[in-house]
Specification:
Elements (H helix, E strand, L loop, with lengths): L1 H26 L15 E8 L42 E7 L4 E3 L2 E3 L2 E9 L6 E8 L5 E10 L10 E9 L6 E3 L2 H8 L3 E2 L4 E10 L14 E13 L5
Antiparallel strand pairs: 1-6, 2-5, 3-4, 5-12, 6-11, 7-10, 7-12, 8-9, 8-11
């Protein structure tokens, strides 16, 4: 009888032990350390130069890259359309400068939030060429939405007398895109996708019109104007 009681007691202990092990197993907690790093969206713009920075202020003439009037010496006013500068007059200038502090960099090149462009002493068919860069300084892909020119209220030159005559867009993973006209440029820039550290180069010849866009007012003499260039982009999955 004692042996049976002892056997039953041992069996009970073993049963409780098994239950205890089972309970411990099912109620155990595994601590998991999870780190979530969110991406960043940051677009920057940089003035590379113009071909008619007559005062040598800011970025020097980029005649090694662009020459609106092939064969003419650096400094002569470039022309477009019906413009002829056979006498190599140098009376107008186009100066581009980076605005404010740098917001990021890729390699040795710093990028900014905006560019200031000033055309001085312009006249009909004056056609300087500028080169700018747009860079994805963030960590996730972005799509360009728009490039905007905001003219100073005191400017005589403005959208009524100004147009992008011709342009070329180059960026990684795509063949260069060329075209003419401001509206076509903006349409071509829209929805271009730039991955992290991608740089888009825009070369554009800007032209002063003979008249305003309605062709009712002649471009004023000795016209000058300053515009601020900014670019807007959003993360790639927010732009349809």
């Amino acid at each position: 009888m004692k042996k049976k009681l002892l056997a039953l007691a041992m069996l009970g202990i073993m049963s409780l032990t098994a239950i205890g092990f089972g309970y411990a197993k099912w109620s155990s907690t595994v601590d998991a350390s999870v780190t979530v790093n969110t991406g960043s969206v940051l677009i920057g713009i940089r003035d590379v130069g113009t071909d008619d920075d007559g005062s040598n202020v800011g970025v020097p003439d980029v005649t090694a890259q662009i020459q609106a009037n092939p064969g003419q010496p650096s400094g002569a006013d470039p022309q477009w359309g019906e413009g002829i500068n056979g006498e190599l007059k140098d009376v107008a200038t186009k100066i581009s400068t980076n605005t404010g502090n740098a917001i990021g960099s890729i390699g040795s090149n710093a990028y900014y939030g905006s560019i200031s462009e000033t055309i001085t002493n312009a006249y009909p068919y004056y056609g300087p060429t500028s080169v700018i860069e747009i860079a994805n300084l963030g960590t996730i892909p972005v799509k360009i939405e728009t490039l905007d020119w905001a003219w100073d209220p005191t400017s005589v030159i403005n959208d009524e007398y100004y147009d992008i005559v011709s342009w070329t867009i180059s960026y990684p993973g795509a063949s260069p895109i060329t075209g003419s006209g401001t509206a076509n440029l903006l349409a071509s820039l829209a929805k271009i996708q730039l991955h992290a550290d991608d740089v888009l180069t825009l070369t554009m010849q800007e032209g002063i019109r003979q008249t305003n866009k309605a062709e009712t007012v002649t471009t004023p003499q000795s016209a000058s104007g300053t515009a601020t260039l900014t670019v807007t982009a959003s993360q790639w999955n927010e732009v349809q």
